[in-house]
Amino acid sequence: MIATVAAAAAGLSVASGSTAFASAGTVAASTPVVTRAALDPSLVSGRGADVGFVEQEAENAATNGTIIGPGTAAYTLAAEASGRSAVSLTPGQYVEFTLPAAANAINVRYSIPDAPTGGGITAPLDVTVNGHRHKTMTLTSQFAWLYNEYPFSNDPNAGVLHPDWWATECTCVPAATTPTPVFPTPFRPNHFYDEQRLFLGRTYQAGATVRLTVPAGSDAATTTIDLMDSQLVAPPKFDLHAANVLLFGADPTGHRDSADAFDRAIAFAQRTHLKVYIPPGTYQVNRHIIVDNVTIEGAGSWYTIIKGHQVDLSPPAPDGSVHTGVGFYGQDASVGGSTNVHLSGFAIEGDVRERIDTDQVNGIGGALSNSTIDGLYIHHTKVGIWLDGPMTNLKITNNIIVDQIADGINFHTGVTNSIASNNFIRNTGDDGLAMWSEKVADANNTFDHNTVQTPVLANGIALYGGTDNTVSNNLIADPIREGSGIQVGSRFGAQAFAGHVWITNNTTVRAGTYELNWKIGLGAIWIYALEKSISADIEVAGDNFLDNTYNAIMLVSDFPVKDLYSITNVHFKDIKVDGTGTSVVSARTAGSASFENVQARNVGAVGVNNCGSFHFTPAGSEFSLTDLGGNTGGGTTGPWLAPWELPNTITCNDRPPVVPPPPPSPW
Ligand SMILES: [Ca+2]
């Protein structure tokens, strides 16, 4: 039951023509349009996470509401939506999905307005299945809506947080400008969406209709539905041969704090070499559970919910945290870290509503060597999984990490021989997946077959330094601002890149954001020399860059360091570029790269935008391209890699007109 692109177009036409139908109350159920990252699944086959749910975009469903987007401008509801489009409903309106496969559970991604003074509101959403009222969900914007400059604010009325910082809106430093510019409020609103899971109470077959209706009287002036996921959740798992937390006093109703009971169960399990089992229920935990040499299994992430509220710490903790909250933490690396920890089959529901970088309020933290994290659902924490190494041999598999204040997963400081595979990451407030080689290099790690969607800030996947790391078979969609699909950057005090960097068989779509400070478009992949030259062996092979908002490939050094750092030893091979708003390659650095079998089509500007390091001497650009053959295709300006561009013809135009490409199609 995989719909085609043609069916998707049909779905759109039903939706867009729905107003006339709506007045007669006869909107027909549409053919289900299943997508992955808002694309026909056949276009991303074999890439990204294999998840247990199917995605349907609201903009492809039946509705009497209003389709918003597509649009990529930061600080807009459309840009943060999957596929850059969603459906906005006023009270009384609905969107209706037809199940493409049997399902007993749904997940709704939505946005409702903030309170006038911040802090969020709640609002109802009625769910009917096959015309029968099932339940009213209580939507919330308490975890959405950030404003202003880093590290952001929950106050929509606040003036600029850092008047002594350069602001792109006025192209000035407000505190040093007369008269002092005043920016309209809310200033830089973002992080609009949230998502919520719901059991349907029974299994419905393919063809059943799930209608989401905003009831009359909702406090939300508009309720925007981005998408619905549906799935057939397996029954809960039971383990009778384990240390059951209920026997140690845990409360599955969520009324009493269960943290001490968890500690007792873990201590018993460590003594007796049993697993810890957490049966179905909601368990209140408002602090870190320290884990070492223990296996903790839930009944499944839909059944076993570990949920906490944020707690103020006064005085601050030794690590600087001023809050704590629910999280499973290994011992700190400074005392040796933890080992042999295995966590699986439960949800962590945090309560993080603001970004405080010194707070350890992550879902999983600490140092976890020789360990596994599998099948968790991590929601509303600061970072889903933030490791502070040195540590080694961690496997992170099959997790869903959504609605985070900062990153999805970060390998920070000396994480080695570890892998994150088949994870699904959506709506992070910073990089979806990152390796940050601060102080000590991350080495021999792999991010493989993950899906990353709609990071509202920064990149889908980012490598900041490191040795012999791999990013493979991932699917990355819809980065929104100050980042892009994949970044390889010498930034944030990271150790230099060394050995190889393999970026292989990934697909990006609708990537390449508008860099608000530089006021130029970024590439879907961007290699960025900010603090060091980049000269490791970078192999970019087998990747597909689809529907690139600007260029597909960018190599850049920041302008103030353009004569200090270069990017060399980069090799692109077996690449498909389907649609660029501007060029295929944008080079804004000294250095070189080779290209072999890089096929491009629907290119919106000259194939290579070559600025080099901006000296514009008669010798040509400071950046050279090597044509190793097989580089075909192009756009309205001719072949993308034409002989006249080689090896270093200056073609510098950072802001050419953007030609929106057609939707991606089978190659
Ligand atoms: Ca959408």
Distance between the termini: 22 Å
Number of helices: 3
Mean pLDDT: 94
Q: Find the structural class using helix and strand composition.
A: mainly beta
Radius of gyration: 25 Å
Distinctive features:
single chain, 667 residues, mainly beta, 26-stranded mixed β-sheet, nine-stranded parallel β-sheet, 3 helices, 57 strands, 38% strand, globular, disordered N terminus, binds calcium ion
Explain the overall architecture.
There is one protein chain. This protein has three helices and 57 strands. It has 667 residues and is mainly β. The N terminus is likely disordered. The site of calcium ion (CA) has 11 residues, from strand 11. The site of calcium ion has 11 residues, from strand 11.
A few lines on this structure:
This protein has 667 residues and is mainly beta. It is built from three helices and 57 strands. Calcium ion binds next to strand 11.
